[in-house]
Amino acid sequence: MKNDFGMFTLTGxxxxxxxxxxxxxxxxxxxxxxxxxxxxxxxxxxxxxKEVVRSLRTEGKDLEFFHCDVSDERSVTNLIxxxxxxxxxxxxxxxxxxxxxxxxxxxxxxxxxxxxxxxxLTGTFLVTKEVAKIMISKKYGRIVTMSSIAGMRGGSGRAxxxxxxxxxxxxxxxxxxxxxxxxxxxxxxxxxxxETELVKKMHDEETRRAYIQGIPMQRYGTPQEVAMxxxxxxxxxxxxxxxxxxxxxxxxxxxxxxxxDKT
Length: 263
Ligand SMILES: NC(=O)c1ccc[n+]([C@@H]2O[C@H](COP(=O)([O-])OP(=O)(O)OC[C@H]3O[C@@H](n4cnc5c(N)ncnc54)[C@H](O)[C@@H]3O)[C@@H](O)[C@H]2O)c1
Description:
With 263 residues, this protein is an alpha/beta fold.
């Protein structure tokens, strides 16, 4: 373990957060900073990413922004080269860069399919591959990938999205096996419905009603509720947890027939 006395703090750790400019990635960036980590936000949205970094810096936080398209190999290697010039190591990698799509399979074009897989699955592969090389050299790392409940259960309109997130679960398990010998843990989050920009675009009223009927907590989650699990997995003390899928879903993955007490 890197620091026995620092099991509940991330002081001295550097975290790369892809998709850190918005939604779950932004909430996790804020919580990592509060836990003492330095954060490198890597996002395709330069305008919002720079604004976020500027505003958090005014609060005295230690973070930087790098433009990166996780689906583009050159952009990913540029990111890693830029980080390497400034940082001695990367202890934490969080993957939140992702895009959504709700389309029935017969309406899904090959372009739709390729776009979703390229960002959600290939992007996870490209970034992890490069960061893992750095972590291996230091014999320490915490990697958190982003799956979804859509990667575990079938959902209408989730052909491309669900396949990309199911792929992330398989990739996470392989990474966990290959990297365990180097002191690196790799786990994945499988959130249910979380109130973010992505969900505003993906969920119409019918989807919202259908979702809430199946969620024991009867509400959508917040980005902060997912960030809590992500940061827990980034702690030095989470050293014996690897290859695991964490549904953060208000009980959705466990639910069956539900009777709600209306009293
Ligand atoms: N919101 C949910 O209900 C939910 C549920 C399960 C899983 N997820 C997953 O969580 C992750 C974050 O989603 P969110 O809901 O916070 O969405 P969001 O749209 O608020 O944030 C996604 C971020 O990823 C960035 N991004 C998109 N494409 C990129 C690329 N090619 N390279 C780099 N950055 C890119 C965006 O600019 C944005 O900042 C996604 O992988 C999503 O699939 C979300």
